Amino acid sequence: xxxxxxxxxxxxxxxxxxxxxxxxRYAAVVTTAFVGAGIVALGAGAMPDAKTVDPSAxxxxxxxxxxxxxxxxxxxxxxxxxxxxxxxxxxAAADDxxxxxxxxxxxTSAYGMxxxxxxxxxxxxxxxxxxxxxxHSGTVKLAGYYGGYGLAVIIDHGDGIETIYGxxxxxxxxxxxxxxxxxxxxxxxxxxxxxxxxxxxxxHVNGQPRDPIPWFRDRGADIKLEVEAISPxxxxx
Length: 237
Prior knowledge:
The protein is of the alpha+beta class. Helices cover about 30% and strands about 30% of the residues. The chain folds into 2 domains: about 55-95; about 105-235, Glucose Permease (Domain IIA). The longest helix has about 40 residues, at about 55-95.
């Protein structure tokens, strides 16, 4: 090895020279680099090129996606149809129920002859202002003063059936209004020809009065025992 003359410039002065690795380590590094490049090349070769994907495979995927979307839409439509039928059945059951006009009353007078005249309904005593409800769904035929009935409500339930609610202190509906069983239609009072606060209830069929006790009993409610066999909540469930 030639010795460096003192007159030659020192090219490495002020810098740290990186030693050259031994030949064995250099060979290992080069070999590892080549092997890694080969693995990457093999991996790249194994991955499919997007340009070479079979168009029929893409079409099959699109068709499968469309069929799944159509199936989901059909299921949604079927579910909506079932829900509509369920709601319709529940509404029909609620419309068909017969309810007591109020609760917590005292049964004071029955249907029949009284003082030489027909008492065409039943009297249910309750504190003034107690709300009472429609016993069945229908249309309000009258809501206002009605002779000896005082402030009264008459509801047309169809098929010639009407109910009359008399002696109200206030009325909560108006003529022509559509109501359901259980809707509040007025408040107990003693307007008209009445002694004490009570609700006078009548049932008419084709213009003829009927005894409310057997009428309601045949439809799942007992006025004298103050029992409702079927409530609108149960009917609608």
